[in-house]
Amino acid sequence: MDTSHLAEHAGAAGSFFASIFVVATLSMRTMIPLRVFAILTNIVLIATAIPIHNYPTLVLHAVLLPLNTYRLHQMLQLVRDVKKSVSSDLSMEWLKPFMTERKCREGEALFYKDEKAESMYYIVSGRFRLVESGIELPVGAIVGELGMLSPSNVRTQTLECVEAGVILSVSYDQVEQLYVQNPAFGFYFLRLASARLFQNIDTLEKRLAQQIATAAATPKPA
Amino acid sequence: MASVLSSLRYLFADFIGEDDGAPPFLPDGLPDGTASVVSDGIHLLMDYQGAGYATLYVERLRRFIGRPGIDAAMFSDIAQLMAARMSYEDPIRIAQLKLMEIESGNGDASIDDVRKFRLDELIGALPEIAADPMLYVLDTMGWLHKRLSIRFSTRSRWGLRRLKLEAALRRWRLFSVRYNEERAWVERWLHMISRCLVKQPQSTAAIVETATMVRGYGDAYRHGLADWHAIIDGLAKPTFDGVLPLDDLAGAVREARHAAMLDPRQAALKRAIAQIRARAIGAGANAAGG
């Protein structure tokens, strides 16, 4: 039985559906639905290419399908991790896959006080010190995350490498891109940043209360 | 139509450069008599790069407005030296200056100037994404410090065209390897001034003055830069960190600068820094011993 006409019909119908999906993909405003529709388009075009033996299209979409799936997975994982972080330890470890590794020499300053802030850092190894306050930051600390949201956008302290180590950095532009592409990420990121800010205020209040208590307990000279 | 063009410009900002907009205003509260210096600096940097860059200059200057220990003369020095350093001489700047000479009609119509640059200096003027792999390859081959003569000529149409092309690279200047180094240098210099104002205000003028050590291009620039870092790392920073009991930082900096001038290979400078440090530590130990 000659089935070529069936393949032709399947090809035409497939192309029609694929066109609808392409339009739908391009009309999406944010990244997650865009990736979902792109995956559907890939599947339809692969299914259409098989009966009509259109191998270049088949190969192209066989490559794009895992790529779109991986990117969607990355995005969903990011939202899940930020959401989890808001309700647990307020850590920002979820940013690590988007960060770039950089080695630091002893004595090198990562940024200076009053300098315009452009990126945030995650300390992987080595020793780093905030020069003005003398505070040493532990491995695993995130520095400069609030600079992105602060209106003045300037560094409030100088960060210096005391012992050679490795840091991960991500520019505010990159975080902004994630924020704009993905409203869910943006929402949880804001909640996380606010929570960290409130945590800082809480720590400062406790420190102030402790200082007041110490001053009150110290006997005044006669 | 304007909004469409604006959107397109934003989309391709990484390739065609930012839409810089209006030049910055003079900041409020400038010390008396410094407005003209700041205004000159703004105009210089507008010509050099654009309004955004001039705004960065104004923002950096704002850190010192109304700060205790900064008088009009010192503020004026900071403004002048910072503008000079922010308009550092790279091949793009030299091409810009040659074109300006022709446009103003002051220069000879047939300019033919040959300048020697190090390869890393030339490649460093390109955007980081293009320069990094090239620098890696040159480093592997051991050619990083090789010198190359570059002709800046307006004698032929091709020479003039080449000057225009080189000057047009300014759109990508802020993405370059060299810009990152210069940004870090200016920030370190300003940071040292700030720390000096807190730790040893009487020596601040000497720290401000150190900016004159870093000038030009090629070997002279590299030597000046290396000497500056040696003085800051060996004397200024340890004094501010409290690990070197140096009472007269200004005198020590002057002594070290004098030694640097005598020997471009840094041997005399390193010896002078070691002597100053030994003297200061000895004096500190004596004072502690009573």
List the helices and strands and how they pair.
The complex is a heterodimer of chains A (222) and B (290).
Chain A: H1 4-27, H2 31-49, H3 55-87, E1 100-104, E2 109-111, E3 119-123, E4 127-130, E5 136-137, E6 142-143, E7 159-163, E8 165-171, H4 172-181, H5 183-217
Chain B: H1 2-11, H2 13-16, H3 35-48, H4 51-62, H5 72-86, H6 91-104, E1 112-118, H7 119-123, H8 128-141, E2 147-153, H9 157-168, H10 177-199, H11 204-209, H12 218-241, H13 249-262, H14 267-289
Antiparallel strand pairs in B: 1-2
Describe what is shown at a glance.
With 222 residues, chain A is α+β, with helices and mostly antiparallel strands. Chain A has helices at residues 4-27, 31-49, 55-87, 172-181, 183-217, and strands at residues 100-104, 109-111, 119-123, 127-130, 136-137, 142-143, 159-163, 165-171. The mean pLDDT of chain B is 88.
What's the number of extended β-strand segments of chain B?
2
Largest sheet of chain A: 4 strands, antiparallel
Q: Supply the number of structural domains of chain B.
A: 3
What is the CA-based Rg of chain B, rounded?
22 Å
Which structural category fits the helices and strands of chain A? alpha+beta
Unreliable parts of chain A: none
Helix-strand pattern of chain B: HHHHHHEHHEHHHHHH
Low-pLDDT residue spans of chain B:
none
How much β-strand is present in the residues of chain B?
Answer: under 5%
Task: Look at the structure and give the mean pLDDT of chain B.
Answer: 88
How many DSSP H or I helices of chain B? 14
What helical percentage do the residues of chain A reach?
Answer: 40-55%
Overall shape of chain A: elongated
Q: Biggest interface between protein chains, with counts per chain?
A: A-B, 9 and 11 residues
Domain count of chain A, please report it. 2
